[in-house]
Amino acid sequence: MTTCDGCSLTDRKFNEHRLCSKPGSRRPQVVLVIYYGIMNPPPILSPVDDQLDALCAALAAASTARDAVSADVAADAAANGVAGVAADLAADAAADVAANGAGREFHRRHPWPAQPLAWCGQRGVFRWSASCHVGGAGWSDADQIRGYLRLGEACLTTAFIITQRTAASTRLAESANHSLRDRLLPDLLAGRAFATVAISQLTTSRRHLADPVLRARETADGYLFHGFSPWVTGAAFADWIAVGAVLDDGRHLLAAIPANVAGVTVDPPQSLVALEASHTGPVRFENVAVERSWVLAGPSDQVLRTARSGGSGGLQTSALALALASRAIGFLETEAATRANLQPATASLRREWQAARDQLLEEAGDGATAIQAEVAPGLAGASLAGGSLAGGSPVSRAEALRARVNELALRASQAALVAAKGAGFVAGHPAGRWCREALFFLVWSCPPGVLATHLRDWTDGYS
Q1: pTM of the model
Q2: Are strands 252-258 and 240-246 parallel, antiparallel or unpaired?
């Protein structure tokens, strides 16, 4: 590997050269063209494009290969019939280990899916959510949901990572800071850069604590960020991070902070129950100076509500839960073709999945509206007594739907485990992984309405 003459960054971290202002820094565009091998913008696929079929098939193969990663990535993957993508994954793993002194064993066993993400960038996936006037594809919310259903069923980890970079690009695209938007967004949409979000502390994580875990203090030149964000995906591979913090007066601030500036420390990834390859873990900010030119939004009382992605527990999250459920139901359908005893339950689960998908697409087209007197129709298994939480707090249709698809993902994955029998309980079998991945949706952007719905349903209405 070669290094940047200005900042000594390796080619593995070439995206950060764009943010390097030191003398002698290489021009990033040259490196990027060599890496991707393209000069023109990638084509934009439609949700039903045959090329999306090919992309999803490649993602599924890469996911299977990544599951086989252990002491010898290539050998294990080859033994499972996926040697074609194993070489790319082995190279990713080796580069990850070389670039990360801490947590080398983690990087070896759970390599960052660089190649699958590159494929998505080359096929224009990262442009889906952005408006045409800023260089995006301008897909409708419903079409984005259709796309995420496809990607999530192929590889949940890759799809999850994409939701995090999409959250960052959405905040950037809708920022009133047009100068920053015009400087950073083109590379992000084209796949030449990677960004992620550190906003869980403003939505669902650590909100029960008296003091905010990440604060911002105003200075003459901008702001000082101090504290940490507990859940950040792929921070070690990010050019910049959309970071949310709380000011002393309680208002929120959102800023784009380059990942390589002084005071930013990316801790080793957490050892998660599932989706380890997402490299999700804490990022610490030790009095990080942020100029006003890097502010994305705020200060304001609800800085995250200004973007299309809304608050926590959005429809993208529900789409990925449904994608996981579909993958498990697909396994059941294969098994049911030769096992008649599985056919009634499998058909019932698929019908339930189709109804939930149709409602998700309807929500994406119409938008979610808060309800209190009654729960949205057809939400069996996720309804609330009286249509509200204790104390009369409203539950949105989107939250009720999220609870429904969470339940479906749990039941479908467990049904797949039952069908797989003892083999499904052996490490490496997909049924066991699907069960673990279903648990993820109980903690990922799980707002109070969804949490309360699950607790009420699982405890017979608090009786």
Answers
A1: 0.77
A2: antiparallel
